[in-house]
UniProtKB/TrEMBL annotation:
InterPro entries: DNA_methylase_A-5, SAM-dependent_MTases_sf. Transmembrane segments: none annotated. Keywords: Methyltransferase, Transferase. One of its GO terms (molecular function) is N-methyltransferase activity. One of its GO terms (biological process) is methylation. SUPFAM superfamilies: S-adenosyl-L-methionine-dependent methyltransferases. This is Type I restriction-modification system methyltransferase subunit. Belongs to the N(4)/N(6)-methyltransferase family. Residues 43-154 form the DNA methylase adenine-specific domain. The keyword Cell cycle does not apply.
Amino acid sequence: MKKLLNIEDLQDLPSGIEKILFSEKKEEFFFKLLDMHDWDLSYDWFQNMYEEEIAQRKQNKQDFTPNTVGVLLSNLTGFENGKIYEPTAGNGSLVIANWNYRKNKLGLNFNSEDHPIECWEFSNRSIPLLLLNLSIRGIFGEVYHGDVLTKEIKAKYILSKNNQFSKIEKL
């Protein structure tokens, strides 16, 4: 991963990803990531690495939901059309689990625009990974970089269908 992003330390992963997300190299980078992970979009590829190396657990009290919990919650919530609201998105593992569940249940009838997301995330370091995780899956919706409790917003991102991947616009 470090070589792919041209970074020396995993602490630089969020900033390396952020640079790529808003560059002309985004699609090429996405295809390389997909190849690295055998095109398996069913889970957050960065979760283990992020938890162990990058998370700000002490400063921001960050903790991460295990993939199995995301799968369980998805089974409980169902797959009907409608907005998916995630007030503490982190890197997006719960959204990914729900997206994957809906996609598998609906098959060819799945359309990302029928299942828009609204995510909130406070951490500067999580936002780039969240945006990557959503965009590479073609997920449609809004991401708020801010405090979900006070509704103070640092940035808002719109994810819209572009082609295979979501287009990311920063407002």
